[in-house]
């Protein structure tokens, strides 16, 4: 049961990233240029953190992290084929840095999380 509870946020996050990455943009110009790079970093950082939280087996979590990297790069490629989106190497880099940062953040906080969220572990 605990395993299932930890996986739910991961699946929700994958679906949210996929939806937000492929939906038609609002058409409004961004207030800050290249703010989307920050959004990519935050989304994939959250994904990296959530993978480590959800999958306690380190070997499997690393496989899922690699899958997530491929997932992000594939979405970027697909965006290049859509008339209302474009592919961006900078977005792919932001995705990758986010995954790495989220993973590092989880590793730094893992002891505290296990202590204060022991009912989930």
From TrEMBL:
<dbReference type="InterPro" id="IPR006976">
    <property type="entry name" value="VanZ-like"/>
</dbReference>
<feature type="transmembrane region" description="Helical">
    <location>
        <begin position="7"/>
        <end position="26"/>
    </location>
</feature>
<feature type="domain" description="VanZ-like">
    <location>
        <begin position="28"/>
        <end position="108"/>
    </location>
</feature>
<keyword id="KW-1133">Transmembrane helix</keyword>
<feature type="transmembrane region" description="Helical">
    <location>
        <begin position="63"/>
        <end position="82"/>
    </location>
</feature>
<dbReference type="Pfam" id="PF04892">
    <property type="entry name" value="VanZ"/>
</dbReference>
<keyword id="KW-0812">Transmembrane</keyword>
<feature type="transmembrane region" description="Helical">
    <location>
        <begin position="38"/>
        <end position="56"/>
    </location>
</feature>
<keyword id="KW-0472">Membrane</keyword>
<protein>
    <recommendedName>
        <fullName>VanZ-like domain-containing protein</fullName>
    </recommendedName>
</protein>
